[in-house]
Amino acid sequence: MSRSHNQPCPVAASLNQLGDMWTLLIVREALNGATRFGDFQRNTGIAKTMLSDRLDQMVRDGLLERHDIGQRGVRHEYRLTRKGRALVPVMAAISQWGNAWLFGEGQEPIALVHRETGEPIAPLRPSDAQGQSFEWRDVRMVPGPGAAPALKTRFASIPPNQE
Amino acid sequence: MSRSHNQPCPVAASLNQLGDMWTLLIVREALNGATRFGDFQRNTGIAKTMLSDRLDQMVRDGLLERHDIGQRGVRHEYRLTRKGRALVPVMAAISQWGNAWLFGEGQEPIALVHRETGEPIAPLRPSDAQGQSFEWRDVRMVPGPGAAPALKTRFASIPPNQE
Predict the structure, then answer these.
(1) Closest chain A residue to B148 measured between Cα atoms?
(2) ipTM over 0.85
């Protein structure tokens, strides 16, 4: 995977670790309980050499931890780190988008549900620190405390996104 | 971009349209008001031929609409469709993950805030249809109404994700 985004932006920086299509499918599998090379390979259909590269990269990036389990024929288990597990909201947002726009109501191949009640989760909504939710159109991106001066200048010149 | 995921899964299907790292950066720019080839090129640093390919693909995928504005030297504007704009929650989830895990508190290059109050949005949380929120660890993936039989079988064999 080329790592070509060096912009000070959390989207760009995240895509350096997630941008490869396979990475998020491996996360999907790990969230669903896969731990072994063969599980990942079977469930994603990824070629073995590429899977091997991706797992190595994900270990280097701190998304997966490799544990040597020393069993004959199965040497390693891969487990999501906290950083990897923190991708659940990303997976959920992508799943909801895909279900809504690529499959449609009643055709969803995968549903996200509450573990105990089995009820589907609602479309994600933004909320403030007090838990008050509002609409996505009320959200905008602004420079954060770590923004480089060039980014602040650029944002100053962009009109607020109208809708 | 290769389109190699033919699994009946909203993550896999979404990654076919989003998996290329550049696609989400183009969405980021469009959300921030970019409409013209030069805007996208300048703000992402993407090579011109690749940008041209990506914009064409995103128009074919229904993420962007191309409008001929007939001005000398600037022939087209690109605007997000409803489907493209529906990626805001995906961008928000990725931004929050990147800010938290790749930059850290106080170093965030970009913040997501309420348009009017300027207050940062809280980390996304799942909620049910009544707006009651719960924890991400209480969410699991299950086969949806459009799941193929093989997927149902596979899920039946996977133990619930423990944590």
Answers:
(1) A109
(2) yes
